[in-house]
Amino acid sequence: MPSLQADHLYKVFGRRPLDAVHELQQGAERAALRDGGSTPAVIDASFTVEEGEIFVIMGLSGSGKSTLLRMLNGLLEPTCGRVLFGGQDLTALAPSELRRVRSHQISMVFQHFALFPHHGVLENAAYGLEVQGVPREERLRRATEALHLVGLKGWEKSWPDELSGGMQQRVGLARALATDAELLLMDESFSALDPLIRRDMQDQLLELQRSLHKTIVFITHDLNEAMRLGDRIAVMRDGRIVQLGTAEQILVEPANDYVASFIQDVDRSRVLTAASAMVPPHRPDAAGCGCETVTPNTTLAELLPVTARVPHPVAVRDDGDRLLGVVPRQRVLTLLGDHDGPQTPCDARPTEKEATGA
Ligand SMILES: Nc1ncnc2c1ncn2[C@@H]1O[C@H](COP(=O)(O)OP(=O)(O)OP(=O)(O)O)[C@@H](O)[C@H]1O
Ligand SMILES: [Mg+2]
To answer: Could you identify the atom of ligand 1 that is nearest to the CA of residue 63?
Structure first.
């Protein structure tokens, strides 16, 4: 069952919101509506976040990310459209039922995580469980486990002001994890951190996700962060989702000039993988090839030294040693945007000899 679904969501602030939605549906421009006193913050957003997925919503300031996220957990009522969570229509729930879903099944981590200064770290991490009415002993036990998960073992008795910004953010993450909520909504959760700590937190989140398999919606305005974390990324512009796809899809096939201009500065070598670079082997049954082999998710950064070392295309094989394709050196250079790079004898479509390494 899909975990979370946005179904033609609209949010318009200001005057005559429903009229504004109808005008948008008939092709009215957002700017014209703004002149008339309505602010369309989210326009016709539809997507499904699968269970266990990290789904990133990326866009510049004011593009509608937080508004969209607040509709996903029922904090904001959509002007139009529905949010389905585990098949349940959040927009149709009674307020008390919605509060229950929000406190038990959904956790949020914000950019500036507000810890209670007069409570210790452990009590802060246990706060979500306190709201749920979990008995004290159990909530402290679960909060302790969550603090260990985020690398804060030994800090349970400290006070928030004894922690660095990055550590405070970890307490926020621990609070969200302690509740066992299956859906984690993270709004610019790492944006206030300096770059090295931010990267650490990204690594930590990816590592936690490998064992916890939460469903995560992560908001960021940083495309590199989006590409590092996201299984899929929704790119927003002026309230609309202008592209939805994997990092590779967005890099290889940007939907429009806007997305293309966005991805210019991305380090493609760390996002693109052998899977997107490979071409069909000339002879698909070319087993037993003695040439260099990589897995489909080898990044181009890792692949480049291999292609530089060997004269023939590199074979891409899955765990079962099946030949999936081959990557000629020229293809790697082309994908990295180095069109003037050294030419190799192998064309994008390798010869049988090159494909098999024979
Ligand atoms: N409560 C509100 N009342 C009126 N307009 C609002 C309200 N909340 C948001 N907006 C407007 O909706 C648009 C989208 O805002 P939103 O906060 O969702 O953007 P964002 O992508 O999260 O931006 P940021 O990266 O700065 O957090 C903006 O034009 C904003 O001014
Ligand atoms: Mg925001």
So the answer is: 21
